[in-house]
Every structure is written in structure tokens, then in C-alpha cells.
């Protein structure tokens, strides 16, 4: 027959008491007080139930409002008050028991039948108990619980040793409840040992971290104290009063060969550094400034080479063609050399350098940047390129104020620092693409840089000391002059690079582009060769440009195709590429001459179409102007202009129409019904904006062709502005426009008579293939451009 104990149930909210544990219970809770008082009353004897006079309760965990199926029988050791004055009962856990049915007992507590549970032990229990006992002792030693070690060492029962885990503060209520439910002592010891080891591992990591933190704090405190002591010692000695590296900076400044005004400013900053705390961010700013000043080559200069003949040889070796440009550069170098010799002979000091700032202006790919490198090589100076394209912040030129985070010198100072000398050649690339916004206008900052009368006292916002730039050779490059501000343009002398002729492109491709691309493709000098005919066809039919950039890409494409075929075993080296072979490597030509196209004559075969010439950012180009007359019954009137024309071209169209209306009778043109019929003038390629004062006679010729029915000759191109009186006014870019007409296969070109002196700039081989007609009146233009009336009627 199973024996039960009828005990008052004492619920434990979110807590577990294992056998062997001694815990205080707060009697302020109603259920706890009722259970203790009921236990203290004498329990009545019930049939079949052994009664006892011991005051015992059944401690049952209650988790989330639900009672556990097991509890702990505990004896009430003492009832009294805690140091705080609250009533409490001290209970000791004795044995595990299963919670049974509800019974009757004295008091208001809930009485239940408690069935004691027999625990299971085996041989492993003793070994596990010894191991866990050692683990508990190690934790107690780590925590300093020396008074509990003796009590733990006296325990021999594996069950009692296992229940020691109930006192572990690192176990959760769920873990303690799991230990309460484990009646197998070995399993209970294994679980307790596992959790103990995990806690020891976590504790070791925590102790290591705490130790490192404590050591770091101790080191910082020690370092702080040592620094304060060092500071006090330095003050007493009268040498220094702070900063561990200020003495090094002072020695560096005193040893450096700095100008007097720079040395004075640097020593002032060293004084500030010595008075600045190590924790202050200002110390880092001062050190960066001092490093920048000390790194600048204040007295370092390269020796100029005054061999003008050698400079001409360098330019000729690096660049084909551009004779007028190279002549102007040689003049520039000769004047600088002569001035330097004169100053040396007179033993004059003060500012050096000065002179003109050259601005190399031309389409992309004509060699502006490489010309700057050649000038530096010819002078024996260092070369630095400063890219200005897209720069919109004035601080990029003048530098940032040191009050800003991340402040640094401007690009000019960084260029001098990079060159390592105070007289480099600095190329300001793409100066026409400098923008302006709320951060300032960089072009305005360039005024002082490029002005020979001012740049000897250039002051960067970051350095805040004067920097002599008078001996720096500044060169500028640009694609278009229109976007360069007038004051900046006034400080530069323009050297125009209009482009290359087809013959010059062949020489450049053979002597410069092909050897460089052979090396890039991993080919030897004799592995692949392109004939002059092939290079000429590349320049004429596969690339239509003022420069040679696309020609360079095309040559590289041919070499890639050759390399691929050799790798696939389809060809063997060496290989010679001739003009007919290009279609096999590059496909069909992209730019056939207008005269060779079947539709070229058809384009101007219709009355009202004329061929003009214009200058774009990529050099000269051919521009077609088309005109049409609305039907008299449509009701349309007035002048319609399309093709994204600018204001100047719109005015040219208005002037052309007004001239024809007022002089129609003299020109034998039917202009009487123009007032009732609408006129539409269109310039194709409507997605490209167009403007400029050179399309007047082209528009006049197109309208005259439309009114007379006489078509414009297919081989005639023209450029020039027109006035209301019929005079042909001069324009610019004659050389670029004639080169464009030659590239397009047009052989007759009409230009204003006042532009005839500009023909001296056109290469002789181009002029020999063009029939250029200088004109002064519109009547001359119409006589040259329009086909005779009888031919038009026959057509």
C-alpha cells in the first residue's frame, strides 16, 4: 500500500526549491502564510494515513499560473521577522514528492496528498557526483564563497550533490524545474554538470574581457599621469609645455629650407601645437598643415633646357603636322629662354617666369594634352596635369579653409607638391568645362593663377601663406572658346589646333598610333603592318573627325581581330593589312564621301536644299539647309524654323528672307506671293542644337533655289553671313570648315572675300584639291551655287 503525506500546499511563483536548499519565504503573501500556519497546527489522524507532528509543507512551483506535477517536501525551520521587519519563514527542502489529490486539514491552506518519490542511482552516479562536486567547489572558489566549500566537501550522497545546482544563480527557473523532475540521479548530475561547464566557459570570457578593460583603463590612467608629469617637468625646465611630437616639428621646421614668411608662419603653428592638448582635434589639423608645408618644394627647381633646336626636334618627333602650332610653341620657348638669359646677365633677382599663358584650343583628339607633355620634355621640366572638367567648387582651386573638416590644399598647390619643384609645367585640362554653382566660380579663382602680374603672390586658403607661381609654366586646353569666361580668356593666348589632314593622319597612324597599339596588343613591331592606303581609308571612310582618337580605336580594333585570328589558328604572323582587307576586319565603311554616295546628288537635286559648313566641338562639319513653300490654299503664312536653331541662326533666316523679298525682282525670283504662303526652313539632325553666325548665305541660297526652281550644285559648300543689303560678311573657323568640306568630298567652297587671308592657315595639299571662291555679294553666291535655268528646266 502506497504511503502518502497530507501536507499543506505552498505555491512558489516563478521559483523552484530543490531538496537540501534553505530559503526564506515572505509571509506577506496570503497563500504562503496560510500554508505555514496550517502546517504548524496539529494535523488530525486519518484512516490509512501516517500523521506527524513535524511542521511540513509541500513546496510546489507555479509557472505561468500552472502547478508543476512534482514538488519538494520542506520542513519549517523557523518563523520570525527579517532584518527589514517583514514576517518570514525559513524552510529546508527534504525530499521530492508527487502532488496528489486534495485532502482535508486544519487552517485555510489547501491540503494535498504528497507521494514521496524514490530516486534511482547507479555506478555512474558516484563518478559524476565527484566531478560535479569539483565543479561546484571551483565556482565557489572563483566567487569567493569559502564558507560554503566545507559544507559542500562533506556531502557524500550523489542525490544531495546533484541538488546543489538549485543554489546556482546562473540557472533559470525552467532549468531548475527540469532538475526537480529528473528522478534519475545520473541524468540530473549530467545536466547540472553540462550547465556548470557552459557557465564556466562564459565566465572565463567575461573575466578576460573585464581584465582587458581594466588593463586598458589602468594603462590610460598611467599614461595620463606620466604625460602630466612629463608636462610638469618640461615646464620646470623651460623647454616645452606640452605635446609629445611638437619638439620634432620644431626641429623639422628649423632644419627645413623655408622662405622667411613661411618659416615664421610654421613656427607660429608649432607654438600652437605645443599649447594644444593631445585630446584636442586641433592638434591633428596643425600637424597636417605642417606636413603639407614641409612637403612643398619651396626652393627646389629643375634646370631649364634652352636648346631651342632640340625642343623643335622633340615636338617634331612627338607630333606630326601642326606646323603653325609648333612654330608658336618654339617662339614661346625662345622668348622665355632669351628673357632668362637677360635676367641672368643683369643679375636681377625678384620674380621670374611670367609671360604668356598658352591656351591650346581644338577638337577632341588633336593632341592638346600630349603637346603639353612635349613642351615639358623640351624644357626639361616636370609635367603635371590638372583635370578641371566638371569642377564646380572654388575650393578645388584655392583650397579649403582649415576650419572645415577634411580641409586640403587646392589643386594648384597639390600639383606643385606632386611635381616636386617650383617650376613645373602645369596643364589645366578642359578649362572650358569648369562650371559654377553656389560653392563659387572656379574660373574666377583661376584669374589670379594665370595672371603673370598676380600669381607671384598666390595665396591658397589652406596654406594661408604666399606661394610664388611666377616660374610655373601654365598651359590650358579647351574644346570650345564660347564657354570660357571673357576675363579668363583675356589672360591667355590662343593657339588653335584645327585638326589634321588625311595625309597627316596617315603619318600619325603609321609613326605613332600603330607602334603604340602593337605594344598594347602584345605584338612585335614587325608582326602586323598597315599600309598607307589602309590608314588613309581608315581616316577617310571609317572615322570622320578632326583628331585621331577614333582612328586610334579603329587601329586597335584591327589589331585585336588579327590577334584573335592568330590565337584561333586562322592566320599566321606576320600579317599585312591593306585597304581592301579593312572590310574583313571592320565591316562596311561608316563615312563614305558625299560625292561617292548614290544619294549625294539626290540630296541637293531637289530645289530648296543647300550645303553649308559649320564648326562644332568636334571640328568642322557639313550642314544641310532645307526649305519648303506651303501650298497657297493651305492658308499657312509666315516663317517656320526647325532643327533646334539658336537665336543667331534664326536671325540669319529672317535676314535671308527679308533680303529675297526686297531684291526678288533684281534676282529674277517670284517673290510676289511670299506674303500669302508659308515658308519652312529646316536643318536636319534636329536633336543637335545649332547656332552661329555663318549660315546666312546657305539659307539665302536654299530659299533662292526654292523660289527659282534651280537646284544647288551637289559639289558646292558655302559659309558666310549675309546682310540686308546682300553683302557677304566674314565668319570664323575657315580652316576647320575647309577641312570638313575636304573630308566630305566637296570640291567647291564659297567663302566671304574678307576671309581670303585665312586661307594661309589651310594646308597646301588641301587647297590644291579645293576650288575656293571668295565672294562679296549674294548674287555671286547664287551664280556659283545654282545650276543654270535651262539645265533646271531640262531636268
Automatic annotation (TrEMBL):
- Under the cellular component aspect of Gene Ontology, which terms does the record hold? cytoplasm
Which controlled-vocabulary keywords does the entry list? ATP-binding, Cytoplasm, Hydrolase, Nucleotide-binding, Protease, Serine protease, Stress response
Q: Where would you find this protein in the cell?
A: Cytoplasm
Residue positions of the active site: 694, 737
Q: What is its EC number?
A: 3.4.21.53
Q: Which GO terms describe its molecular function?
A: ATP binding; ATP hydrolysis activity; ATP-dependent peptidase activity; sequence-specific DNA binding; serine-type endopeptidase activity
Which Pfam families is this protein grouped with? AAA, Lon_C, Lon_lid, LON_substr_bdg
| Function description | ATP-dependent serine protease that mediates the selective degradation of mutant and abnormal proteins as well as certain short-lived regulatory proteins. Required for cellular homeostasis and for survival from DNA damage and developmental changes induced by stress. Degrades polypeptides processively to yield small peptide fragments that are 5 to 10 amino acids long. Binds to DNA in a double-stranded, site-specific manner.
The name under which this protein is listed is Lon protease
Species whose genome carries this gene: Amycolatopsis taiwanensis
What gene name is given for the protein in this entry?
lon
